[in-house]
Amino acid sequence: VKISNKINSFKIEKEKNQPSKIKTSGSTFKNPKNQTNEKAWSLIKKSNQDIFKKNGISFSREHANFIVNTQFISANHIEDFGEEVRRNVRASTGINLEWEIKILGNR
Q1: What is the Cα–Cα distance from 97 to 90, expressed in whole angstroms?
Q2: What is the pTM of this model?
Q3: pLDDT tens profile 1-32
């Protein structure tokens, strides 16, 4: 019972802080531990990239490091969105975000 209660509390906390039941690849950028103690989501918010939207792609309202894709045209749009976010975060904070998700295929 104790373990079951603990699992349920983790599940509730996750659902509160991370998107669910939508198309997302999960955490998009690695936390830049070698550059700062700040988390990737915090740097994205600090750079106002959490409200950035382009071609049907945006960040989740629950978590600023989860890309949400509502378009069905091209996966390249997702990569382009992420690269623009990386450039803007670097320009705003001096921190270089690295992709956490694996990008497969060629352009």
Answers
A1: 7
A2: 0.78
A3: 788 888 877 776 766 666 566 666 678 999 99
